[in-house]
Amino acid sequence: MIVIQDLNLSESQICHYLPDREWRFKYFFASELSGEELNVLLSRGWRKFGFYYFRPFCEGCDECLPIRVPVELYRPSGNQKNIIKKNRDVFVRFGELQFSEEIYSIYEAHSRVRFGTESSLDEFTMNFYSRSCPALQSEYYIDGKLAGVGFLDKTDEALSSVYYIFHPDYSSRSLGTFSAIREISYARELGMKYYYLGYYIKGCGRMKYKNRFRPYELFDWNEEAWHIEDRGSNAGTVAGNE
Fold first, then answer.
1. Strand pairing of 2-9 and 13-14?
2. 67 and 211 in contact (C-beta within 8 Å)?
3. Quick check: 125 and 99 in contact, CB under 8 A?
4. What stretches of the chain show up as alpha helix (H) in DSSP?
């Protein structure tokens, strides 16, 4: 690992997920991480975009919990099986990071329709195509047309979902959930232990889908340890636009 900028602490800002609170991050910039080094960071609650590595450091709040799925234990819920069936015609391909104008156009449409934000090509390439660790992308085709793309990091024992985009024309397909199911399956095929889903906030509706991949593990910031949740029930609802 080459550290470009040492560990620092961001200024406080209004939290995008819990607007009545503020967030801060510990962060650093680095490149050329090995899979083993990335695995250590993920296992301690770190996330990244491009060269930017971060973890929450919010005073009086620890709602952002790292979440991961033990891939050998995961079994699709009834709703997830329906999503698999609905997308049985989707062709999925995993491969090296490879930018295209078509992928960026999907990102533009996804950002505009899903979040009401305008995209930036520079920001997009910096976040997803500035490779600082082992990484790959997943591509989802419907009737031969690219419908969605996932960006993943790869450690010695896990895949980590960085971000997933899909064209709004396919909103009824629940491609966000379907992509996670397929990526969990791919991690299992590679003989990996975990699939990381980023941070989970119980009180944030946009993140409800994350605790539907069961069983899952949550990271306790105070204990610096992972705890498995929901070994039994695999029931749960899935929103149609995920």
1. unpaired
2. yes
3. yes
4. 35-43, 78-86, 101-115, 121-128, 175-189
89-99 core/surface letters (b: 16 or more CB in 10 A; e: else): ebebebeeeee
Residues paired with residue 42 on neighbouring β-strands, in sequence order: none
- 136 within 8 A of 149, measured Cβ to Cβ: no
Nearest alpha-carbon partner for 53 in 149, 157, 160: 160
pLDDT tens string 25-62: 999 999 999 999 999 999 999 999 999 999 999 988 99
Asked if 109 and 167 touch (Cβ cutoff 8 Å), the reply is yes
CA distances from 31 to 43, 48, 52, 99 (A): 18, 11, 9, 19
Q: Say if residue 35 is exposed, middle or buried (CB neighbours under 10 Å; 0-12, 13-18, 19+).
A: middle
In angstroms, the CA 68 to CA 75 distance is: 14
Give, in order, the Cα–Cα distances in Å from 205 to each of 83, 144, 146, 197, 217: 20, 33, 28, 15, 19
Which pair of tokens denotes residue 62?
A: 């620890």
Grouping H, G, I as helix, E, B as strand and the rest as coil, residue 65 is strand
The token pair that represents 236 in the structure block: 């749960």
Q: Which amino acid is at 178?
A: F
Query: What burial letters (b/e) apply to 129-164, b meaning 16+ CB within 10 Å?
Result: bebbbebbbbbbebeeebbbbbbbbbbebbbbbbeb
The model carries a pTM of: 0.92
Q: What is the pLDDT of residues 182-239, one digit of tens each?
A: 999 999 999 999 999 999 999 888 898 999 999 999 999 999 999 998 655 443 333 3
